[in-house]
Design goal:
The structure holds 3 protein chains of 3 kinds. Chain B is built from 4 helices and 31 strands. Chain B is mostly beta strands. In chain B, helix 2 packs parallel to helix 4. Chain B is globular, with a radius of gyration of 26 Å. Chains B and C meet through strand 1 of B and helix 10, helix 11 and strand 3 of C.
């Protein structure tokens, strides 16, 4: 019993930290993370030093589906860091994306031991190679912006997956909009 | 003065008042060669009937695809079709002439000590003459290859230029759940998986001489350039600069590779040696520069750049580094491929909501659209003789490999359904 | 270049030398001659190779003295056409009805045009109507034997007709009506041209007599040359996928005996392309026994090229 309570307390505490830190402006955005329900149990057993993060394991089940399993060399999602989206054939950051990145930067400033990989992704249209380059630009744009917010370059690295790892394997405006994105993954 | 003028007029008229009547025939009445392809009878050793049937099917399919021939209906064949006589004096050409055939393929199949031996001949019916004759031997498994090889010979005989049917097509498929590199026949048969990287493998290109491929793989987490010997399976990472190492293309002499690196923070095209050392940086521009394709002489490349805002095709002189834009329409032009003869560049353009294939002269003139209709047609690549194009299309839902003639006719899907197949590359004639 | 020179000379020569004026005149004359030589009269010479394409029905055997007509005219029609031709020369008594009948050949545009003429014609004098009809028939007469009326000729005819019409109009001072008439005239000319073109594309459905365009004989049929040209075309097989280029041309000299047997063939001029040359020789070989006879032993110089092959993609 005691153990359970302690666990619960731990959970509540960690969640509140998350809320305060990462979602100070817009608490509603936590809903994005609700899909990762199974992660809460792992929180206690996480080998990572920051309790608020690392609650992942097989995180990709919720949104990414079986078609896009984790591939070798690809990092795990970092809870507390949100992905951002881009316009077609664009790598400039939208106002919304900047807001999100500002929150992500705050998070990384607090958890300055976390090293992240910023992944650039594209929708399926166009040349695969061009998209690899475009994905890299997106990742680099994110990295540069985070840098301007005070995150040291050494804490971030980038990689592009072009159109190779869609969140939504469907074709269509909705899926494409989802797939044009930058993700934050944990560096090994 | 007047006399001279008259003389001049007479001179003008003289050439037109010849002794023989002049006629001008301005186009062939039959724009395909009527060809009869017979089923080869057994010669000796009682070979399985399957062999002749398969040879006939593969050969007819290739010959039909190349557009050169009109196959004479086998239902109309007369007695000579089943006769074995292979020497031209024993062929009853008059029969074939009656059927309207101008070319004739006859042959025979034998089984000699477990080896399948196929003798195949192409005749000129009008001149009653042998045009080309070949003898192939191998196992029963090699029959398809023999038929492709003979189709190539027939093209050589009829056009002076060898066909590309015995070559292979490399492509990427996600059949295993991951994108891996495969190899198949030009008609889509006998697909073989070449890599087991369990990652993302992309964009293969054949070495022009040695039987090896280069491609990009995320095997160790980042997009690096690999080379692989096809038959030994030996594999090595040849370029793993920071960032992208993608879209590698062998130069015509096989001694250098153009590819896109982003080690300096922006996607630029570089020239590297086959062991990966950088020879020269070819582009220097804030835009994305990607997808190089060599001209046959190896002194120019076509590539894609978004330096003007949208992706367009450019041509770059490798020595002077002078660049010239050659695509002017559309908002998205991609994946140029320079023809083996050097006269055309094929590329993919987004028009409306779909990508279609176009060709253009290397100087940007004479642009022609090749494909229409449903589906995104992308990643076009030439056959080694420049007669055909391989490309991917998602007209049927998933991406699949198609081939067609260089004028856009004769489109056919060659990869099997069920998985996404893309990034075709036509091998040289081995 | 020539023009520039002329301008320069006339500007400076007037004051300088007396003999220079003659030179200028001579030069002008020579230049004018050159212009005349290469513009109007000798156009047929320079355009020799742009002859229209005829498709001869190979069932119709060639004749020795072909009449004027079209090679694709059907065999049953010459008689009809012959009757029709003299009729047209007579002053036509029921012109409007006939016009309407002929106009019917053009399927779609008829109603619109048919409605217009009566509206205009009613106020105009009967004579004018008649003359108009005669003129129209003239145009038709001129058009029918020619397979492809050259637009230049058409324009010329129209302009002449227009001028005559205008003169008459001035006399009667009915300017407004004339303008309308001219318009209708132009439309009718167009229609007439269209009907001939239509019948052309419809192949054998032409009402032109069977013959050759420049025929002067009296026999319904085509010339031996035109027949052989079609025969060779149908026997020539060459795929565009065999070609590396399209500007190929070869010339073969052939001789046939009276029975239509090939007795000699010689490649006079090679195209430089082996495959092309071979296909051309095959076409001749295939035509080594013609189903026709000649009045005597004949020789032909046959040029094979790809001018009418659709552009290769």
């Amino acid at each position: 019993m005691k153990k359970r309570n302690a666990c619960k307390l731990f959970l509540v505490m960690s969640l509140s930290v998350l809320l305060c830190v990462a979602c100070a402006k817009k608490p509603a955005t936590t809903s994005m993370e609700e899909g990762y329900g199974s992660g809460t149990e792992a929180a206690g057993t996480s080998e990572l030093d920051t309790p608020a993060y690392g609650a992942i394991g097989e995180s990709s089940v919720g949104e990414e589906g079986a078609a896009t399993e984790k591939i070798p060399g690809m990092g795990d999602d970092i809870r507390g860091l949100e992905r951002i989206h881009f316009e077609f054939d664009q790598y400039t950051l939208t106002a919304e994306a900047r807001e999100i990145l500002a929150r992500n930067a705050q998070f990384l400033q607090i958890h300055n031991t976390i090293r992240v990989i910023i992944e650039g992704h594209c929708d399926e249209r166009g040349s695969d190679e061009y998209n690899l380059a475009l994905g890299e630009r997106r990742a680099r744009a994110v990295k540069d912006y985070m840098g301007s917010l005070g995150i040291p370059a050494s804490q971030m690295s980038i990689i592009s997956y072009g159109e190779e790892i869609p969140l939504d394997p469907q074709s269509g405006e909705e899926a494409w909009a989802k797939n044009r994105r930058a993700d934050f993954k944990q560096a090994n | 003065m007047r006399c001279r003028l008259l003389g001049f007029l007479v001179l003008l008229f003289l050439p037109f008042s010849g002794f023989a009547y002049q006629l001008e025939v301005r186009s062939p009445g039959q724009q395909a060669i009527p060809l009869a392809v017979t089923q080869f009878p057994a010669m000796e050793g009682n070979p399985p009937a399957e062999v002749a049937r398969e040879f006939h099917e593969v050969l007819s399919n290739d010959l039909d695809f190349c557009g050169l021939f009109r196959l004479v209906d086998p239902g109309a064949f007369l007695s000579d079709a089943g006769r074995l006589g292979l020497e031209s004096r024993r062929v009853d050409f008059e029969q074939w002439r009656t059927l309207g055939a101008q070319a004739l393929i006859k042959g025979g199949v034998s089984l000699q000590g477990g080896q399948v031996v196929i003798e195949a001949r192409l005749y000129d019916v009008l001149r009653r003459r042998l045009l080309t004759g070949q003898r192939y031997s191998g196992t029963a498994k090699d029959v398809r290859t023999m038929a492709h090889a003979f189709a190539d010979q027939i093209l050589k005989s009829m056009t002076g230029d060898m066909g590309p049917f015995k070559a292979k097509i490399a492509f990427i498929s996600d059949q295993s759940g991951r994108k891996e590199l495969y190899l198949m026949d030009v008609d889509g048969h006998e697909p073989v998986r070449l890599t087991d990287h369990n990652a993302i493998v992309l964009n293969p290109d054949f070495s022009p001489y040695s039987k090896e491929l280069i491609f990009t793989s995320y095997k160790t987490g980042t997009p690096d350039l690999y080379r692989k010997e096809i038959y030994t399976g030996r594999e090595a990472k040849i370029s793993s600069q920071k960032g992208l190492n993608i879209a590698g293309r062998f130069r015509g002499d096989g001694r250098a590779v153009a590819l896109t690196l982003s080690k300096d923070g922006n996607a630029e095209i570089y020239l590297i040696g086959t062991s990966g050392h950088i020879l020269k940086r070819l582009t220097r521009n804030w835009g994305i520069d990607v997808d190089p394709s060599w001209n046959p002489d190896g002194d120019k490349i076509a590539f894609v750049s978004d330096r003007l805002g949208n992706p367009h095709i450019f041509v770059l002189d490798v020595f002077s580094l002078k660049e010239e834009r050659i695509s002017f329409a559309g908002k998205y032009n991609a994946t140029p491929a320079w023809s083996p003869k050097g006269d055309r560049i094929v590329f993919s353009r987004l028009e409306g909501r779909t990508f279609d294939l176009y060709t253009v002269s290397p100087d940007g003139s004479d642009e022609r659209r090749l494909t229409f209709g449903a589906g995104n047609k992308e990643h076009p690549r030439w056959s080694p003789d420049g007669r055909f194009l391989a490309y991917s299309s998602d007209a049927g839902g998933k991406k699949a490999i198609y081939i067609m003639r260089a004028d856009g006719s004769g489109q056919r899907r060659i990869s099997s359904s069920g998985s996404n197949c893309l990034h075709p590359a036509w091998s040289p004639r081995w | 270049m020539a023009q520039k020179k002329l301008v320069f000379h006339s500007a400076s020569g007037g004051t300088a030398y007396a003999g220079f004026g003659r030179m200028i005149i001579a030069s002008l004359v020579v230049h004018a001659l050159v212009v005349v030589l290469f513009s109007g009269i000798f156009v047929p010479l320079t355009k020799k190779k742009d002859r229209p394409v005829y498709y001869v029905d190979l069932v119709n055997l060639p004749v020795e003295r072909p009449q004027a007509g079209r090679p694709d005219g059907s065999k049953s029609e010459p008689a009809k056409a012959k009757k029709a031709a003299p009729k047209a020369v007579e002053p036509p008594k029921p012109p409007p009805a006939k016009a309407a009948e002929k106009v019917k050949l053009a399927p779609e545009k008829t109603p619109a045009v048919k409605e217009k003429p009566p509206a205009v014609k009613t106020p105009v004098k009967k004579e004018a109507v008649k003359k108009e009809a005669v003129k129209k028939d003239e145009v038709k007469k001129k058009d029918t034997p020619k397979v492809k009326p050259r637009s230049v000729e058409k324009d010329y005819q129209q302009s002449v007709l227009g001028a005559v019409e205008a003169l008459r109009a001035k006399k009667k001072a009915e300017q407004a009506e004339i303008a309308r008439k001219a318009k209708i005239e132009a439309l009718k000319n167009k229609l007439a041209a269209m009907t001939t073109q239509d019948s052309r594309s419809a192949g054998g459905a032409s009402d032109a007599p069977l013959g050759v365009p420049d025929g002067r004989g009296d026999q319904a049929g085509v010339s031996h040359g035109l027949w052989l040209q079609t025969y060779l075309t149908s026997n020539w097989s060459l795929s565009k996928y065999q070609l590396s280029r399209q500007d190929l041309e070869a010339e073969i000299h052939v001789e046939y005996d009276r029975e239509g047997n090939l007795i000699r063939k010689r490649l006079v001029r090679s195209s430089g392309d082996k495959v092309f040359d071979r296909s051309v020789e095959n076409a001749v070989l295939k035509s080594s026994k013609l189903p026709i006879t000649f009045p005597q032993r004949v020789e032909f110089d046959i040029i094979f090229n790809l001018k009418d092959l659709p552009e290769k993609n």
